[in-house]
Amino acid sequence: MADVLDDLRDAVVTAQGETRGMLDAAFNKVAHPANWKLPIDAVLVTRQSEMARIGRAVEFFTASKVMWTYLGGDTWRCRAPGYYAAVGA
Predict the structure, then answer these.
(1) What is the CA radius of gyration of the chain?
(2) Rounded distance, CA 52 to CA 15, Å?
(3) Of 8, 19, 27, 69, whose CA is between 20 and 30 Å from 2?
């Protein structure tokens, strides 16, 4: 079973060549800590390249789009409706 999970982490899932593991790491920076399917509302210090990856990760895992709000410096607020809202649950 662990081999199957490792294979999934290594699978390329975006046109940018990102693996599921890379998207998982990016998604975990903004996902709701109690339940990943809940709406996303996170403040983080990040670069534009990481913001793009986070956006792709949120869309990959939740089927919802990220909305970014600039807070100053390298600080951004990331919000998204989340999986439940995206699938109408």
Answers:
(1) 13
(2) 13
(3) 27
CA distances for 43 relative to 18, 19, 57, 86, angstroms:
23, 24, 16, 21
* Model confidence, pTM: 0.88
pLDDT in tens, 56-78: 999 999 999 999 999 999 999 99
- What pLDDT shows up at residue 15? 87
Give the orientation angle of helix 20-27 with respect to helix 48-62, to 10 degrees: 100
How does the average pLDDT of the chain come out, rounded? 92
Number of domains in the chain: 1
Q: Domain containing 49: what range?
A: 2-87
CA 17/CA 43 separation, integer angstroms: 26
Question: Which residue type occupies 47?
Answer: R
Q: Look-up: residue for tokens 């439940």? A: 84
Neighbours of 42 (CB within 10 A): 15
Report how far residue 60's alpha carbon sits from residue 14's, in angstroms, rounded to the nearest whole number.
9
